[in-house]
Amino acid sequence: MHEPERTASTSARRGDAGSAIRPIRIPVTGHYRSRVRTVLRQLWHLPAPDDARPATRWDVAAVAVIAVLAVLEAAVWQPDLAWRWLSLGAFLVWLPTLLVRRTRPLLMAGVFAVAATASSAVGWVDGTPPEDLGTAVVGLLIPYSLTRWAGGRDLVVGLGLFLLVAVTSLVTQPLAPADRIGGSAVVVAAMATGVAVRARSLLRGRQLEDVRRDERERLARDLHDTVAHHLTAIAISAQAGLAVADSQPDATKEALRRIDAEATRTLAETRRVVRMLRTAVDAPDGPLDDMAGLAAGAGPGPVVEVSLDDRLDLSPTVAAALHRIAQEAVANARRHAAEATEVRVEVTARGDDLELTVTDDGAPVARRASGFGILGMTERAALLGGTLEAGPAEPRGWRVRAVLPRKDVG
Predict the structure, then answer these.
(1) Most buried by CB count within 10 Å: which residue of 41, 107, 127, 211?
(2) Rounded distance, CA 133 to CA 152, Å?
(3) For residue 372, how far is the Cα from the chain centroid?
(4) Does 227 fall in a domain?
């Protein structure tokens, strides 16, 4: 009884064809069923777009004109249409719901389904199905509106009601096969158009949100790199003035003068940021002059020395980024470098790139290489296709090194 089993086992050990290398087929029906359920669940919970607007006077005028045309069609243009007055009545019942096709598309589909079903039931009593008015072609707005503005649940229910009525009409009416195929294609085209317009609207909304986020990040960087820099100098000057207020009145007056000067610079920088935001200009008037001014406006704390390469020929955007990164690096050194006596700023041209190095001789204590300052400098360098590194220097202190292209990459 067990001989075949031993033979199969021996064949498998020997690697015979048809046994050891026979592919194993794993049923995937459950996997596909699970994916279908996931897609249907996502469709059911699909949120409605937020760009739906109520009906306008033009919508009301359009509905009124369509109603007049339907009456003329039933009374004058199509006098031989089967059950023309019944079809006209059902059409005029659901036609006003086109006014809420954006805000309540399911209501429109529901009223349409009820009116169409009722007229069909009455017509079948006589054995002759009612024929649709030509004006009823505006009913294609129903599948379009559902796929364009409805939420997931309303979309599924509304399309189910509409397709039930449409398929029943195409099957029961005396139409040629080509007309049935053409009618089905038109309905599918209406739904596809709604899906396409909806997707385009969502994409545009996401693009606008990306633009808003980029503007917020840009504003945050500019405020942090300008206003925060001068506020740091004001705070340091105030602390120095308080420390010597009782013993050195002249030093206190000097601290107050520095505070006044830094406050004036802060106001000027704030106005410059506002002007850049209003005019979409991202470059200061004289960025290289501002670089040299980092040493002049140092105030209390470590001495700031600035060394600029004479061969610099920068675009305004690169010059502005260079100034902002150097300004923030100097502010960080003055704020966090314990026992620092000197901060060196060096800008050197290296081929098609330029290298900015800001170093201090502070105590070798742990400093965070994170925060909004490092993040803002890194983002500015990355936007221009450059790089930025920040970390401990040898033998002591901290170093910020940025490599930027001398010209705009775009």
Answers:
(1) 107
(2) 31
(3) 22
(4) no
The tokens describing 178, both together, are 């080509």
Distance CA 141, CA 109 (A): 10
User: CATH no. for residue 334?
Assistant: 3.30.565.10
Mutual angle of helices 152-172 and 177-243, in 10-degree steps: 170
Q: Is 402 helix (H, G, I), strand (E, B) or coil?
A: strand
| Reduced DSSP (H G I as helix, E B as strand, rest coil) percent helix, strand, coil of the chain, to 5 | 65, 10, 25
Place of tokens 């965070």: 368
Count of structural domains within the chain: 2
Please state the φ and ψ torsions of residue 405, each to the nearest 5 degrees. Answer: -70, 145
Please indicate, yes or no, if residue 22 is contained in any of the structural domains. no
Per-residue confidence (pLDDT) for residue 142, from 0 to 100 = 93
Q: Give domain status of residue 95, yes or no.
A: yes
Tokens 């359920």 correspond to: 37
The answer as to whether 400 is a domain residue is: yes
**Which domain range does residue 343 map to?**
301-410
User: Is 199 within 8 Å of 149 (Cβ atoms)?
Assistant: no
Across-strand partners of 342?
303
* This prediction's pTM: 0.52
Neighbouring C-beta atoms of residue 146, cutoff 10 Å: 27
Single-letter amino acid code for the residue at 228: A
Of 141, 174, 207, the domain-final residue: 174
Q: Residue 17: what pLDDT? A: 44
Paired tokens of 133: 């008015």
- Return averaged pLDDT per consecutive 10 residues of the chain, 410 residues in all: 44 45 53 76 85 89 93 88 85 93 93 89 73 86 93 91 87 80 91 92 81 71 66 75 76 78 73 60 52 63 81 74 84 79 88 88 63 76 86 86 75
Helix (H) or strand (E) run with residue 391 in it:
strand 387-392
Query: Among 174, 191, 209, which residue terminates a domain?
Result: 174
3-state SS class at 127: coil
Whether the link from the prior residue into 249 is cis, omega within 30° of 0, is no
